[in-house]
Design brief:
The structure is a homodimer. By secondary structure, the first copy, chain A, is α/β, with parallel strands linked by helices. The first copy, chain A, contains eleven helices and twelve strands. In chain A, the strands form four sheets. Chain A has a five-stranded parallel β-sheet, with helices on both faces. A three-stranded parallel β-sheet of chain A has the order 3-7-4, sandwiched between helices. Chain A has a two-stranded antiparallel sheet with strand order 5-6. In chain A, helix 6 packs across helix 7 and helix 7 packs across helix 8.
Amino acid sequence: MSKNIEQQAGRSAHVCLTPALIPLYKVEEYIVVIIDIFRATSSICYGIENGAEAIIPVSQVEECSAYREKGLDYLLAAERDGKVVDGFDFGNSPFSYTAEKVAGKTVVLTTTNGTHALHLSRSAKKIVIGSFLNLTALSAWLKTQHENILLVCAGWKNNFNLEDTLFAGAVIEQLKAEGFELDDAAIAANDLFQLGKGDIDEYLKKTSHGERMKKLGIEKDITFCLQVDITTAIPVLQGERLVKLV
Amino acid sequence: MSKNIEQQAGRSAHVCLTPALIPLYKVEEYIVVIIDIFRATSSICYGIENGAEAIIPVSQVEECSAYREKGLDYLLAAERDGKVVDGFDFGNSPFSYTAEKVAGKTVVLTTTNGTHALHLSRSAKKIVIGSFLNLTALSAWLKTQHENILLVCAGWKNNFNLEDTLFAGAVIEQLKAEGFELDDAAIAANDLFQLGKGDIDEYLKKTSHGERMKKLGIEKDITFCLQVDITTAIPVLQGERLVKLV
């Protein structure tokens, strides 16, 4: 009997390995963490830390341009093939999200994988943003929430990628002592994190995405995105805007 | 120039972590290996090794019963909650697939996850069946095929599971020296296999499925399904029937 009560009281920490698997979860029963390490959620964490009033993720460059009409205070971030699209303020590099550039501003950020994951998670109890940059602050907050947690990897074109999974495993690492019930994906992600944590940059070099990033000439961005705990702000979704959780 | 030619000549070995991700692949460009370790593809490998003329996988108990009408030579295998359904010859335990029981017979096997994965892979160049039982025979054959390979994990209710992924990683282990191009899922599966290979049974004890299996009282089946290289037959799909590849 007491075992049953314990089980009922137990929280789950599950990992959704790609947005294509989100429909398998009752999203409304979870706090969802969106993860898109290279580079959307890293840039979002850095931008919110640096005083951006809000960041609005959109999936298409055209949607982003539409914000141009709405007012001059928006900064527009859009990239194709690693280059800033003509007429936009900057791209997706975290180096564009410094206090000088974004403090007090609202940024409209074009990110296909990240926006897709966000939209499919709309019915969640709450949606927050994670990256290695805010790993411990995020994990500490999650521990206090008394809710089930779903770590959603934005992946690459709806499929699995290693960097988002590794980060999910890093969060599980911080949660697992709290007695969360873990699913197989959470166990796998955590095991992969154990393998990679000694040198995450090196570990990810063998992946497809690492190759792709190298071709785009954004290795510096990668190194930046793999820094652990350089920020403490937790971006949270309010309506269509990501703002600092207070 | 010579590098380009090499790349063109290169084959891919990709891992599809759940049937929900099959639509992301151009299945017609691959030989597909279906993996459902607990217990469908293990039982199929064992049955074909033991002389079953054919095994027909179906997803519903009702479909299975329909074969009763077609002739007395069919053996019907159907299980619910770990028990043989009334009126059926046996369930999904590999111990039912001995030579005494299945030699020369056609078995109709009810398997939800496995059948689902098979149906979604219909357009593949060829569909074969893998399990730890035929690991090395299967891998050796795959090496000779000069085709791209997609290892499809049947998973659990369309989601990720660790045992199917671990087996995919075991196949990658045997293929990787051949210069196959690997995707992130193949790299992850292989890394998980490295962690688990010392004692796969022990490694899988922490998973959700291990728990489920224990509740069903089929730990003996699990131990059986984790035996490596006790068979050499490779089941291949011909029409709706799985037969021995010759």
